[in-house]
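Notebook entry, structure prediction.
Reason for the run: the old model in the group folder had no record of what sequence produced it. Starting over properly, with the input documented here first.
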Amino acid sequence: MIRISNIKIPLDYDDSALEKAAAKELKIGRKAIKSVSLFRRSVDARKKEQLHFTCSIDVKLLVNEDKILKRNKSAVKATPYRYELPEWKGGAAPVIVGFGPAGMFAALVLAQSGANPIVVERGRDVDSRTADVNRFWLSGKLDESSNVQFGEGGAGTFSDGKLNTGTKDARQRKVLEEFVAHGAPEEILFNAKPHIGTDRLRLTVKNIRKEIISLGGKVLFETKLTGFETDENGIKAAVIERNGAAQKIETDSIILAIGHSARDTFEMLCDKKLPVEPKPFSVGARIEHLRESIDRSQYGRFAGHKNLGAAYYKMNVTTQNGRGAYTFCMCPGGKVVNASSESGRLCTNGMSEFARDETNSNAALLVSVGPRDFGGDSPLSGMYFQRELEEKAFRLGGESYAAPVQRVEDFLSGRPSKGLGEVSPSIMPGWTPCDLHTILPEYVGESMKQAIRDMGRRLSGFDHPDAVLTAVETRSSSPIRILRNPETLQSVAVKGLYPCGEGAGYAGGIISAAVDGIKCAEKIINKK
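New structure, fully documented this time:
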């Protein structure tokens, strides 16, 4: 198979256009081509009057491929990715704590290898969880065990299902292929900015769970890790709470894929003197615009084209106070969602379904913070910092889980919002106009103001007066890192304990967390 990169194709392309482009690039007749498929596709919108896709395409020929390659420097030999599954050699079933991307893919690989893993998830299955989340968004009645943060699929289930990643690890292909095999759209295999959508992701994670169980694994919902036992050899049991009773699961391997919001588990780990350190993360608010406005700014006259969908953006600036400010987790054609998981505390996230056809588009507008901002000597000082902001947001919104919001013009002018304009906030169960400067640290608020102005010069309409800020965004990543050996991926203090994924401080999204889960699973399999 031959791979050709940087092929320009029109927005209205079809398979014959790909074949024609391949033949032209390879300088061969179309009859010599057996098949053509997309490997990567991205939108080139640098020139608004000449929008097109830039692609990498895989070509199989009916003639000698090596001969063709010798005369085409732009083409390379390519082989289909194949994941080599390690073989389980026996032993106690590993325990995975958390069923987000890291835990899910750790469990899947362990199950596929024959290890019969046991998954412990504090939240509920995805169908029950969806009902709990919808009830909260409609009524403001929060279930602290089943919400946007906790339950089958992890926090990513109620997001955009975005699969953007900076990791170059080849295992990311395994993740994408497994998603497709379990119901995700095939286009995630070639789109440069792939997304599944919350609606399709729910079915996908359910199907992955079903495969894990069919291969001999177990998934225990509404089950919480409360501790672990060790001996001179390391881990010997996981201590859990299930149906109101304490239980033990004998094992010599525990994968801690607990997610970035398992705060009581963070506290338990610190009580056990597990080496944990605070790490930098970011805070801010969601910024929301009319989708059509962002589409026009990015795509010009091509906005609304059926092959483009809702427009994406990603921007960053360095502010005058030296902090980084950036957009994160952009949700084209999506909604801002109430992602609270603790009583009396409010935080936000963003979500899109596969169609990305909601009225607004939104993104997190974040400012970097670090241990120097948190104060105190506790490794959980960042977590306490998050909680303080979330408590302020809850109170400012009226103590009913209505979110505090502010027009961008008012935010930039430093005055409270009394009402809103053309952009209506999408967050549920409600919102309250206010002054976000009263809850954000001054350095965060000032950095956001500069970022909005600078980004407005790059993306027309980003600083629109009626754009809406919804606070507070605090869960951009974990506030801690659970220290682990970089070679064995085990805790530096406890053999057999594998801190994993975003909650442990080793990933920053669905794909990187899933890849880390696979790596931890491999370490357990290969140590047997």
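Summary: The mean pLDDT is 95.
The old model has been moved to the deprecated folder.
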